[in-house]
Write a structure and sequence with these properties.
This protein is of the alpha+beta class. It is built from 8 helices and 19 strands.
Length: 415
């Protein structure tokens, strides 16, 4: 485009190249010639250049007709098309009355807008299309939606047990006795049976050991030490028996691992705390009040229990702060409460495990946090003397709290 001439001639020739007819609402006072040289300019660019050169603005009349008007306050108020638009403003309903009023004052003073209405969560403006675009851009910049973070948190309680028992368990008691003494005691306690055995010719009357053997074989020695297995040594009057408990060999090993999973998902606004609870409201007996009453005929009593409810399960408190599009600062406080399994004076003992930390976590990356909770170890040994160990057992138990955290920025703080 290479055109030269007065303002009216310049506008007619330039817009005519796009097939657009120009109607002049007011005559041009300045007839000084102008020259336009443009390369590959579209209609919008051409209109901006010509409007600046000729000090006028253009109002569309039809598809191929525009109205050229001198650009001043009077003519803009007379000829410009006004449009009404409503813009949604995030968190507008949470603003104070002064802040809501400041929005209206800003639009009136900055853009010279005559009609502004502030609603619960939106703003309605009556202005030209160009001004509306600027208003929309300003509101989107000043009142951006609050950034949000999705937290995917999983908690594991890993419990491990290791039980080992290896060695030989020696007899706990040893009994030494005289064989003839125990035989005479067995014969005297079964005298009638002994007379029958002698009368039947099964044994001689003076054969003490023979008579005792027959009584043992017939099952009459169940209450005597001779009725159980024993070791014997010596002979005659010095015959001695030794009896002891059984000897056992131990070789056992047991290993177990238990994993308990709690999963939580929180969707939080930036710098806003959130709480996640899952579990039960458990009644715990704390005291019992006994009331005793007496009358002329009898004494009566009644017991009244005192109960408090405890929250058992997972309690997770989190507060995210978005540092950038790739980093989130997290404050976490996690509590896991459960019944320990034992009680004190009929009151159950609660097991409380807590984790609290401030973490800087990359967005979309899983971070693992490990905390040792408990560790117990019991060692028992047995032996003949202190320097010789015949049997040993070892029991170990440990548990860990493992937490995985994956923050996902669902609404970025960037515009």
């Amino acid at each position: 485009m290479h055109i030269e001439g007065g303002p009216a001639e310049l506008l007619v020739d330039a817009f005519g190249m796009y097939g657009i007819r120009v109607i002049f609402a007011t005559p041009f006072e300045d007839a000084k010639p102008h020259r336009v040289d443009l390369e590959d300019a579209d209609l919008a660019t051409t209109g901006q250049v010509l409007g600046a050169m000729t000090h006028c603005f253009f109002v569309p009349v039809s598809t191929h007709t525009i109205l050229a008007v001198t650009d001043d306050k009077q003519h803009r108020a007379q000829y410009e098309h006004l449009v009404t638009a409503t813009f949604d403003v995030p968190d507008l309903e949470n603003l104070s009355t002064e802040e809501r009023t400041s929005i209206e004052t800003l639009l009136v003073s900055l853009f010279n807008v005559s009609k502004v209405a502030v609603h619960r969560d939106s703003v309605t403006v009556h202005a030209t299309p160009e001004v509306l675009l600027e208003v929309q851009s300003m509101l989107a910049t000043l009142y951006r939606p609050t950034p949000q973070v999705l937290l995917q948190i999983k908690s594991y309680i890993v419990s491990r047990t290791h039980n080992r028992n290896l060695g030989v368990e020696l007899p706990q008691t040893i009994k030494i006795f005289n064989v003839l003494t125990e035989a005479n005691s067995l014969i005297s306690s079964n005298s009638s049976v002994v007379q029958e055995l002698i009368s039947a010719g099964l044994v001689a009357s003076g054969d003490t050991l023979g008579i005792a053997e027959l009584l043992i074989a017939a099952g009459y020695a169940s209450d005597s030490v001779l009725g159980s297995s024993s070791l014997y040594f010596g002979g005659g009057l010095t015959a001695t028996g030794v009896q002891f408990d059984s000897i056992s060999a131990n070789a056992s090993l047991s290993v177990s691992s238990v994993q308990q999973l709690e999963s939580a998902t929180l969707h939080l606004a930036n710098d806003q705390p959130g709480t996640f609870k899952v579990g039960e409201h458990y009644p715990v007996l704390t005291a019992t009040t006994l009331a005793v009453g007496a009358s002329t005929s009898a004494t009566s009593s009644s017991a009244t229990p005192s109960i408090e409810y405890e929250d058992l399960g997972l309690l997770l408190e989190a507060k995210p702060h978005i540092v950038s599009d790739k980093e989130v600062l997290l404050h976490l406080h996690e509590t896991i409460r459960s019944l320990q399994g034992s009680s004190l004076n009929t009151i159950p003992i609660l097991d409380n495990q807590e984790f609290s930390s401030d973490l800087s976590v990359a967005a979309g990356v899983t971070t693992v946090v490990v905390s040792n909770l408990t560790r117990t170890e019991a060692l028992a040994t047995q032996g003949v003397i202190d320097s010789i160990t015949t049997n040993s057992s070892r029991d170990t138990n440990d548990s860990e709290l493992v937490i995985t955290i994956t923050p996902i920025i669902t609404r970025s703080p960037s515009p």
